[in-house]
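Any chance you could type out some protein's one-letter sequence along with its backbone structure tokens so I can compare the two?
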Amino acid sequence: MPAVVVASHGDMPEHEGRFTIYVIVCVIIAAFGGLMFGYDIGISGGVTSMDDFLKKFFPVVYERKRHAHENNYCKYNSQSLQLFTSSLYLAALLASFAASRVSSKAGRKRTMQIASIFFLIGVILTAGGLNIEMIIIGRILLGCGVGFANQAVPLFLSELAPPKIRGALNISFQLFVTIGILAANLINYWTSGIHSHGWRISLALAGVPALVLCLGSLVICETPISLIERNEVEKGRQVLRKIRGVENVDDEFDSIVHACETARQVKHPFRKLMKPASLPPLVIAILLQVFQQFTGINAIMFYAPVLFQTMGFRNDAALASAVITGGVNVVSTFVSVYAVDRVGRRILLLEACVQMFLTQSIIGVILLKDLKPTGDNLGRGEATFVVILVCFFVMGFAWSWGPLGWLIPSETFPLETRTAGFAFAVSSNMLFTFIIAQAFLSMLCNMQAGIFFFFAAWIIIMGSFTWFLLPETKGVPIDSMVDEVWKQHWFWKRFMVNDEYKAEVKVV
């Protein structure tokens, strides 16, 4: 029998409910949207390091790679090669705003279905690609799928979860992202030995999580909040009973109805986001996405095999090193699942800043000292030590900025601006992911070892932001964020002077 969980905070009423098996099933199926995203992050770097792929689509890069005298940092410097990776995220940026409207009007479940269909069509085009135009179009459609999934899935998870374990359940999205990255690295390691068409297998298998999400979304429920928001009130009550596992859901149901009635009074949610009282969650949501990318994590995850080859690893060793870092990523995310609702969000973010700053700085020093633009690569011992440092960097990110970058924006917006606000978070993430993906190989070529100091400097900035401006939201029901978080914070409370949230939004 699942344990009873009770949502309470301060003077808020307690809501009855159990953590049911049905909720677990819904969470797992929805989280396959994260696996879709993670698989693509991991697969692109491995595919772009495969000779068969380069010979077919990027012959200039392939010839440059073969020349031993070529600059160690510039072997893969190609705007078109970077566009193969980054085009997906530019498409996701644009799709996220359309996904916001679809999520509000059609629901989180339908948005996830649309995401899976976009992704499946994109998989067909990329895996069956005959020319560069075909695979770029495929990547754009994959990006539309990512934009829709990343908009709907975190909201779905936050709205389905009881407040007491909201953090842990929401992090299942990031957990599945890391599993997707690891799966992609393992598959790339296997397909790299299948010559002439191994890259096609790698790209085709991206369709597996998309198919699971597409079929699974037929059996999961819509969230009660989304149903009531769209005037399916009685159905919302029935679903609420089903996911809580109890008959008495009146208090929670009434608070959701009240929230939806308040939200309906806001006819222009994007305009509402520009009001002073909406700025605290909006600014934090956007900056978390910017900082998440400027840790340097996606530079490592996108191009891990390429990066390790730059450091002197052979192709199979580079792919194996990427598998190792992918495994560390998955295991470390479980730390966040365990700790986020126990120690809080801020502690995890601050600890990780120290850890990531030290590892980035040490890697930079090693490369600056021992990896010259031309000549010998790193020695075996040094290269192994760099892989260990990369693993420690990935650990810190995986239990902090990775999952919390999605969790915090999903829990801090009130209902009337939730989908619009989260659209800004998703689009900001995709914009800066696009920038890093498009620029990293060129930055590596021009900045060389200095690129690691560049990311380390950003980590100092984000640590300062967390210390001074990021409030703790552990255990605070979404409907209490204004009174218990924003109005109590030394800086953000000044934006609440007009009390635009006087009609308090009641959302669990």
